[in-house]
């Protein structure tokens, strides 16, 4: 848009031509500056910062091509229109190569052609400057985003370390029971959580929990769960013996269920909770919506444990049944979160469970052999959190 705020500089040694062009552009509402030669024109560019330059090509001393070259080097965004009476094609090519926006032949018979060329050049300059400002803002936003992502990544990594430290290390009892775990988070933080302990040097207590969702919010629930269950174990002796688990497992899940509803964490979770009497080799366990069921392997025989129960955090009035199983002298018990089913090739759930059973059957001697059989450690982008908990004896 033409207005007096736009400064135009005309460089031409032919005074009548220069003044004629200046008068017409002034009448077209432009603020016009004049220079009688190239040196004077370059000086005015430095002093007045015009929005556009119109220069004659053939001038004594510093000619139009030299002016173009200087402006191209030092003010590349400044649009330049070249006018000349010498219509030599070589000059046209040289001028355009040096960045001239237009080339007009003198005498200019229709000044509106020049006005149109000026308006078009200024419009293009405005677009370029607007794009430049947009790119600068975008780059600034990207820098801020990258910094925020770095901060978020650091926070996520710190949270991941906290979550890992809350989980136990591999445990081996005097009776030959070994319990270990491995977790593959789909993000930095996991909604899957395991915990286990050898209580009173007799009872091997453990659980695998799978919180709905992924990422930080689900991970926060696992930390909350860790402290809640630990408090119940300390205060109520939940896993102190088989009888306490018989009566306390349902109470524990009811407490977790009630707290989830009251705190409105907007998450539910599935549970597999168990306690093994390492003297009698009897296991009591509770299933709370957990899928797939743990796999019990004895020799070449592998089968899913039996049991069912509602997830925790969905139904306000829910109860859970305690199941019992006598463990053989040599066995492996492998518990998975449902994320493992996502990496099974079949599409049907029953076929996935059958595939998992087949892959585990001959590779259940240790946590490492299970992970190798399922290629767990090579997974980079898990579609869901994957937790594996193994309990072995006599392997």
Q: Name the quaternary structure.
A: single chain
Helix content: 40-55%
Shape: rod-shaped
Low-confidence stretches: none
How many β-strand runs?
16
Mean pLDDT value: 89
Summarize the structure.
The chain has nine helices and 16 strands. With 395 residues, the chain is of the alpha+beta class. The mean pLDDT is 89.
What does this entry look like structurally?
Helices cover 42% and strands 24% of the residues. The chain has 395 residues and is of the alpha+beta class. The strands form three sheets. The protein has a six-stranded antiparallel β-sheet, with helices on one face. A hairpin with a 2-residue loop joins β12 and β13 (301-304). α2 (38-48) runs parallel beside α3 (64-74) and α5 packs parallel to α6 (215-236). The mean pLDDT is 89.
Task: Set down the secondary structure blueprint.
Elements: E1 7-11, H1 15-27, E2 31-35, H2 38-48, E3 52-56, H3 64-74, E4 80-84, H4 89-97, E5 102-105, H5 111-166, E6 171-172, E7 177-184, E8 192-199, E9 203-211, H6 215-236, H7 242-263, E10 269-277, E11 282-288, E12 295-298, E13 301-304, E14 322-326, E15 331-336, H8 349-361, H9 367-373, E16 386-393
Parallel strand pairs: 1-2, 1-3, 3-4, 4-5
Antiparallel strand pairs: 6-7, 7-16, 8-9, 9-10, 10-11, 11-14, 12-13, 12-15, 15-16
